[in-house]
Each structure stands twice: as structure tokens, then as C-alpha cells.
Amino acid sequence: MAFRKALRRTAIVGGGTVAAAFGVSQLMEYRRAQAHVSAEAELKVPYADELPTRAAQLAALSDTEEFDVLVVGGGATGAGCALDAVTRNLKTALVERSDFSSGTSSRSTKLIHGGVRYLQKAIMKLDYEQYMMVKEALHERANLLEIAPHLSAPLPIMLPVYKWWQLPYYWAGIKMYDLVAGIHCLKSSYILSKSKALELFPMLKKDKLVGAIVYYDGQHNDARMNLAIALSAARYGAAVANYTEVVHLLKSKDPQTGREAVCGARCRDVITGREFDVKAKCVINATGPFTDSLRKMDNQETANICQPSAGVHIVIPGYYSPDNMGLLDPATSDGRVIFFLPWEKMTIAGTTDSPTKVTAHPIPGEDDINFILTEVRNYLSPDVEVRRGDVLAAWSGIRPLVTDPNSKDTQSICRNHIVSISDSGLVTIAGGKWTTYRSMAEETLDAAIKAHGLIAEPCKTVGLMLEGGKGWAPTLYIRLVQDYGLEQEVAQHLASTYGAKAFDVAKMAQVTGQRWPIVGKRLVSEFPYIEAEVLYAIKEYACTAIDVIARRTRLGFLNVQAADEALPCIVQIMAKELGWSQEKKTEELDAAKKFLYHEMGYRSRSEQLTKTSEINLDYQEVVRYKKRFHKFDKESKGFITTVDVQRVLESINVHIGENALHEILNEVDLNKNGQVEIDEFLQLMSAVKKGQVSDSRLAILMKTAEETLETRGPVSVDRSGGGV
After folding, report:
1. Is the pLDDT of residue 285 over 50?
2. CB-based burial of residue 302 (10 Å sphere; 0-12 exposed, 13-18 middle, 19+ buried)?
3. Domain 54-106+224-303+421-452, CATH class in plain words
4. pLDDT tens digits, residue range 118-142?
């Protein structure tokens, strides 16, 4: 099998006067804009007004006599291939066995970048291939920021410097990054003094800080970006279906030569179990970490080309980082790179890099979570206590690295991609990175068209606006507030998630019955996601509650407890819309809770406080906490119940509903007997002290009640003086 290294050779513009360079830049941008306008004008959009339903898409897949291209895989690369193919006027189909972006594409660092570390390797090792990969990625970064402006934006990233000699070294490297970007440089990098760096990033460790360098890369909402690509393909007429798996490949045999050729796939609707054939002149394997599984369906003897690597990320509260400034740790204790970035008003930190087995359900490990926390502590001020209990969510993504199957060192692997065509005609696109999905798709289709003799037009995806991008403006949210009476935070969220399609979501929002906001009931109070998004998610092919909490909204990635609280409401809305039975509702709820528990780090979070947790408190602390406990346990029973807590709260004129109190105590009731024993309370306070647990509602409630009782004294709950 012959492999073709998939690297675009992009001309390097350099040298000459500033005026000359500016002239070339303007000319290139003008030509690009003209090509963009021309491409958009030529393309027909069959489903501009309304997307076909999933049932209609499945019917198209099974009823169409033959497609030109069948793409297997609904991640960024697969969706990119489908969009590229359909806009070249090829009859296109795409199937994904789970949901769009359910794998690696939704579990990234959320950066659109060229790869600073890859450029460093390219320079240090004089590696032209790596250099070209970085240059290609920087070109694609600019394109992605242009075609989905609602989902992406430039982000300044600070590189703190703690040794004087590193300042010119890193500055030269970052300036080279700007230079390689050329006309696609987002903003020029710059050096900061120590005082200015601390002003912009006050959480930074001050000791021995020399200064900092700030450079710019892009950031995006990865799952929504992936979905935008897939929905754009559907708008242009591609038959796309999630929850549709390939059972086996179809092959035809040439009667004269006896040579077998892949001519489609036997597919199964995962939801109903119905099987059907999808015939196609060309089948493209874009299955990411599962690349070798499909290749072995074609030929069992084929050698593996994918070596998977797991990358874990964590999400911690937004106060750990400034609103609009990221941080790069270029050399961690084991030589890896850690990013520390603001994202969706939270802070994301990662990633790790370790060999792993391919699985559809990767689980973040406690060791990886603690490694990231340790590295974060090294860069933040000692005044900022980095607590394990502040980890709101954690996930693991499997990178589909392309390498020699005998290699064991994943850290030295460059995320280049390869396009291969098997003897039977199966086209495989493997490796690569999120940022370069479009150019990877272009090269894959070029190879497929040539190998299969397809009649197609040139690629049109450079500058082609994605779902919601056309008509978006930074001030669009103001119209949402004014026209529909949405909260400003909700309107901003809808505009940055759906772009111009935000109006379609707003039209579905229910009246709140309040003075303000007029419409838009939130799923959970602290996040701007509203109930109407669940209804709109179904139009975007969401089939399960997991699809909604993980990929249509990002609640599961931002806060697992908040996602867990929102689940009953989400399931109820979906059940009403999709006609689910009570059994189906229970099944969906259980599956979503299992997803949060294992894949989103809820398990790791909940295991910070268990029946076997040690009590690590000194004598004075034990005395203080026992005294606090006995203010609630008036009868010295050795335990407290909701009745005890309610009595104390009423005495200080605080009222909490019985269901809420049950939830609060249940978080600490480790043996689940409906009461909190003194030992359980001491275990909680020990875990809080060690930072393993944060934001414990019971701990904060009891502390506040104790302080109020001590300052005000007990207040009688009996009515006095015949008052009303």
C-alpha cells in the first residue's frame, strides 16, 4: 500500500519592503475574497430554510441508488470531507455510529492553532515537513476564524518567563511563529514587564518572574464547530445520519480481473436496529482513532497505522484565569506542554499525553487530573489555593496519531496526516489535527476523485461560511434582547453558539411569566442554557440526552453537577417531543448519568469523599467542628437529619425547601441511611481542609448558621404580639 504524505506546499511570502509586502497581502486577500464570493454565488443550498429530519436522511441513504462518496465518521475530518464533496457537486453521504463530534473532536483543548511546539521542533531539528505543517495550520486557522466567526475568536496566550536567558529565546521563537503566519498573523506578539504581566494575569506566581511574552492563537467551541460543518453539509444536500454504524463493507468483483472493489457499506440504524445498504462509488474512512478497525473490515491482514494517545483536560472555576488571557507552560516537570485557558466563562487546563487503547468511552484518570493540578500550582501565586475539589469536570480524548506501529514514544510524534488508498479502493484519511480538518478533507477528496475517476468541480471550502456564520455580527445579541426579551447573558450565549440561527432558537423560547426576562427559561440557574435549546437540538439531530448535555450545549463539559441537575428537565422535554415511553425516559436518564459519572469526571469528583476517607484534623479543629455539629444535634443523637437542619434554619429566619435539604444532606450521607453522622461530618470538613471538596453546601450552610447564631443569638419562631 502506498502512502502519500498529505502536506500542502504553501508559498512563503517574505523579504522586500514593508510596502511591497503589504501590496502582496492586499492582493492575496482581494483574490481570496473574490474566490469566496464566486464560490458562494455558484453553490445551491437545497435546504436553506429547513434541515431534513433524521428520518428523511435515513430514507435518502437507503433509497438512493448510488452515491458518489460515502464518508464513514462524523468527527471534524469526516464532516469536512462530506462538506468538501457535496460542494464539489458530488452526491454525498455520511454515516456516524454515535453522534457527530462524540469522539476526539469534542474533547480537544479548544484551540485553533498552528502549533508553537511543532515549530520549535521544526527549527531545532531542521525539519521542513514540520515547518510546512505549521504553516498550513496557520493558514487554516485564519480560514476557520473567518468562516465561523460566532464560534471562534483570537485569544491572547501568555508565556511567563522566570529566567532572563529564556526571554530572548522564547521571544525569537514566538516572533518566528508570527513570521511563518505571514498575512494570516492574528495580532503581533509582544513582551511584557513583570508588573504589566501581573496586572493582566494577577493569579500568576510573582517569585522570580522576569516578564512574559504574549502571542495570539484562535479558540473555538469544538463540538459546535464540528456540528456546524456537518449541518452545513446537510444544507448543501449531503445525506448525513448519526447513530448509523457500518456493519461491513460492500464489495464488487471485476469478472475479468477478479479484483474486488469497495462499493459501499451495510449500515445499521443504532436506534431502531434496521439494516440497509448504502451504495457508493467511493468510500472514505475518516474514523479517527478507529481508523484501523474500518481498514481491517477491508483487509484483515493490513498493518495498523494509528497509535492512539490519551489527552486529559480538566475544567476549574473561571476565577482561576483572566476573562481573556490564556497561559502556556512550555516545559512541565515531564517535558509536556500545558495550556491554561479561559473557556465559556470557566478555565480549562490540559493536556496530558500518554499511550492508550482505543475505546469509545475514554475515562479521565485521577493521576492525570492531579498531574495537571500540580503543574497549575507551579505557575499560580501561593495566594491562590488550587484545590482538587474545584475540578468541575474532566475528560479524556484519544488523539489519532499516525506513526510507525513499532514506535512507543508518542510525545515525539508530529500530528501529520496521511491519505492512503487500499487495493480495493478504500480511501483512508488518518492523523492530523483539528485546525487542519478542511485542508485534510480537500486533499482526501482530491485523492478520491483521482483514484475513482469521479467527475467533480474544484474545492470550494476556502472562505465558505459554516452554519450560522452568514449574517452574524458581534452586536447580534442586542437584537435578541430587544426583539424577544431575553436576558443579556442568554442572548450573548445564543449568538455565540448559533450565530444567525439564534433567532430560530429564540422563537422557540417559552414565556417565563416574569417581568424580566420575558422569554427563556434556564435549564440551570448558573448557566445561560435555556429549555428552547433542547427543542432546537432535536432539529440538529440530537437523539439522546447525552447529545444535548455534551455536544448541543456544553454543560457536561463545564460542570458535571449542573449537568446532572439539568438532566430530568432535558429528558422530559425530549420525551414529549420524541414520544418516549416511561421506560425510555428512565433509560436515557441512566445513560446520561453514567456518561457524566465515568467520562466527564463525576466519579473522580465523588470519590474525594467516601466512607473510607481519612479524618485529618488537629485537636482544636475536631473540637470546633463537633461544637458546630452539636448546634444542630440538640439531642446528642450522634447524627442530624433534615428536621434538625430545618429547625436551626428557621430559628435564624432562613427557609430552604425539604427536597433541597434532602439533596444537601445526601451529598454527605456516605452510607445513605438518611442522616449525617458526626464522623461523616468530620470526614467532610477534613476533605474541605485538604481541598478535595469545595463548595459543599452543607459545610457552608452549617458554618453560616453557626456564625449567625453566635452574633444574633437564637430567634424565637413563635409569633409575638399577635402579629400577622
Report:
1. yes
2. middle
3. alpha beta
4. 787 777 778 787 888 899 999 999 9
